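Q: Please design a sequence for this.
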C-alpha cells in the first residue's frame, strides 16, 4: 500500500507504475475520494467542536436556555451521525482502491508485458550434453519406483504426487541442507503456521488479486493455506514498533506450501513442475527504510540462492523481471531459472523480491529510528529451495546412463554418505 501523501504528490508516477506493471488502478477516483474525505473530516471536527462548546455553555445556562441548547445538541448529534457514516463509507471505498495501487518499480526494471520479456543478466554453468538418451524426471522417477502420480490423484486430485524411497530421502536432504546453510549465514530459523488469516494475506500483498490461487478453509475460521512462508514470517511483527537494535531481522523457515495453480495447462502440469503442494525453504529480511540498504539485501539474498545452486552443480540463469511480470507490491524482482533437460530449457526455481515499505505499510510493521521517529520497515524475500522443482532439476541433470542418480557432494552427509541413488535399470 502506498502512502496517500505520496499518491497526492506523485499522481503521474503512480499512473506510470500502473501502466508499466499492467495493473489497473483508478488514481483519479482515489484523489477525488481523498479530497472528499478530508473535507468531510473538517466538517466532522467542526461539529464536534460545536458540541463541546454547547456542553460548556450548559453549566452556565438558565433553565430556558438549557432547553434551547439541548435541542441544538440533538440536531448536532443527528448531523454528526450522518457525517460520520458518510466518512466511513468514503474511507471504506478509498481503502479498497488503495489496496489495488501498485508499488512503482525501480528505474532499471525493464519494460515488458509478461515473463517472455524478462531480461537475462547472467548465467552460471553449462547445460550438460548427454552421451545417452536422457529420461525426463517423471520417466526416471517412475522407473525407479520413486514417484506415484496416479495413486496420488486418487487421494487428492490432479497435480498431486507421492514420493517414495530414495526420492523422499533426497527431498529431506535438500530441505535440510538449504536450511542449514542459511542458519550458518546468521538467519534465525522459524517454524511458522501455514494457516493464516485474511489480514496476513492482505498485508503481504497476496490479496486482493490472488484469491483464486489460494485454498480457503471453512468460512467460519477465516483461514487460508499459504503458498509461501513469506506470509507468516513477514506478518509476524504486524501492528508493532521494532527497536532499531532489532534490525535487520533475517529469518528462514521450512514449510509446506499450497497453491491452486488455477488457469495453468500444458507441459507445466506434467510431473513435479507445477503442483498443489510442496516444501520450501524461504528467506525473509526486515530492515530500515533505506534504499541502498534494501538494495544490498536484495543482492545478498539472491546470492544465497545462487550459492545453493552452484553447490548442487545445477546450471542456471538470473533474469531481471519486466514490469508486466512484477506483482503489485514488488519494487524489483530477480528470478533464477534452473536448467531442466526434460523441458529443453530453463524453468523458474527462485524469485527474489524487494518491496520497500509496501508490505510494512499494510501490516503496520514499523520501527523507531535513531532520531526517535517511527517509520515503516522495508521487507524482502527469496526462495532458498523449493522441493519439487529442484528435485526435478537434480534428477534430470544428475542422471547416469544406467538410470541411477549422482548425489552432489554437499547432500551426501544427509544421505548416509551415499553418492548414488537408485538401482541400475535394465
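A: Design:
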Amino acid at each position: 500500500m502506498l502512502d496517500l501523501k505520496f499518491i497526492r504528490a506523485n499522481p503521474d508516477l503512480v499512473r506510470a507504475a500502473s501502466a508499466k506493471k499492467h495493473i489497473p488502478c483508478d488514481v483519479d477516483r482515489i484523489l477525488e475520494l481523498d479530497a472528499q474525505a478530508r473535507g468531510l473530516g473538517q466538517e466532522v471536527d467542526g461539529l464536534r467542536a460545536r458540541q463541546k462548546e454547547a456542553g460548556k455553555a450548559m453549566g452556565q445556562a438558565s433553565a430556558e436556555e438549557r432547553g434551547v441548547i439541548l435541542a441544538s445538541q440533538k440536531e448536532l448529534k443527528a448531523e454528526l451521525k450522518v457525517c460520520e457514516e458518510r466518512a466511513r463509507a468514503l474511507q471504506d471505498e478509498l481503502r479498497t482502491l488503495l489496496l489495488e495501487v501498485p508499488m512503482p518499480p525501480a528505474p532499471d526494471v525493464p519494460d515488458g508485458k509478461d515473463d517472455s520479456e524478462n531480461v537475462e543478466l547472467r548465467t552460471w554453468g553449462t547445460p550438460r550434453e548427454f552421451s545417452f538418451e536422457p529420461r525426463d524426471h517423471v520417466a526416471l522417477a517412475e522407473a525407479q519406483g520413486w514417484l506415484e502420480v496416479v495413486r496420488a490423484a486418487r487421494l487428492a486430485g490432479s497435480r498431486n504426487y507421492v514420493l517414495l524411497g530414495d526420492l523422499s530421502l533426497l527431498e529431506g536432504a535438500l530441505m535440510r541442507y538449504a536450511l542449514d546453510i542459511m542458519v550458518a549465514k546468521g538467519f534465525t530459523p522459524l517454524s511458522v503456521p501455514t494457516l493464516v488469516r485474511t489480514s496476513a494475506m492482505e498485508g503481504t500483498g497476496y490479496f486482493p488479486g490472488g484469491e483464486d490461487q489460494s485454498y480457503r478453509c471453512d468460512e467460519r475460521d477465516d483461514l487460508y493455506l499459504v503458498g509461501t512462508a513469506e506470509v507468516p514470517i513477514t506478518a509476524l511483527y504486524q501492528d508493532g514498533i521494532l527497536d532499531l537494535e532489532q534490525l535487520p531481522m533475517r529469518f528462514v523457515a521450512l514449510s509446506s506450501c499450497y497453491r491452486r495453480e488455477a488457469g495453468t495447462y500444458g507441459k507445466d502440469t506434467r510431473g513435479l513442475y507445477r503442483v498443489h503442494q510442496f516444501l520450501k525453504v524461504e528467506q525473509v529480511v526486515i530492515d530500515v527504510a533505506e534504499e541502498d540498504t534494501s538494495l544490498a539485501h536484495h543482492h545478498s539474498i539472491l546470492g544465497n540462492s545462487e550459492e545453493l545452486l552452484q553447490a548442487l552443480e545445477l546450471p542456471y540463469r538470473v533474469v531481471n523481471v519486466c514490469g508486466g511480470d512484477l506483482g503489485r507490491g514488488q519494487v524489483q524482482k530477480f528470478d533464477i531459472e534452473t536448467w531442466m533437460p526434460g523441458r529443453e530449457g530453463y524453468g523458474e526455481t527462485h524469485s527474489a523480491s524487494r518491496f520497500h515499505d509496501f508490505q510494512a505499510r499494510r501490516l503496520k510493521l514499523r520501527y523507531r529510528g535513531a532520531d526517535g521517529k517511527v517509520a515503516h520497515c522495508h521487507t524482502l524475500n527469496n526462495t532458498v529451495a523449493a522441493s519439487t522443482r529442484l528435485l526435478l532439476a537434480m534428477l534430470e541433470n544428475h542422471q547416469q546412463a544406467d538410470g541411477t542418480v549422482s548425489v552432489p557432494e554437499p547432500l551426501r552427509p544427509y544421505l548416509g554418505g551415499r553418492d548414488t541413488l537408485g538401482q541400475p535399470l535394465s
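Q: Thanks. Anything notable?
A: The mean pLDDT is 93. DSSP finds twelve helices and 18 strands in the chain.
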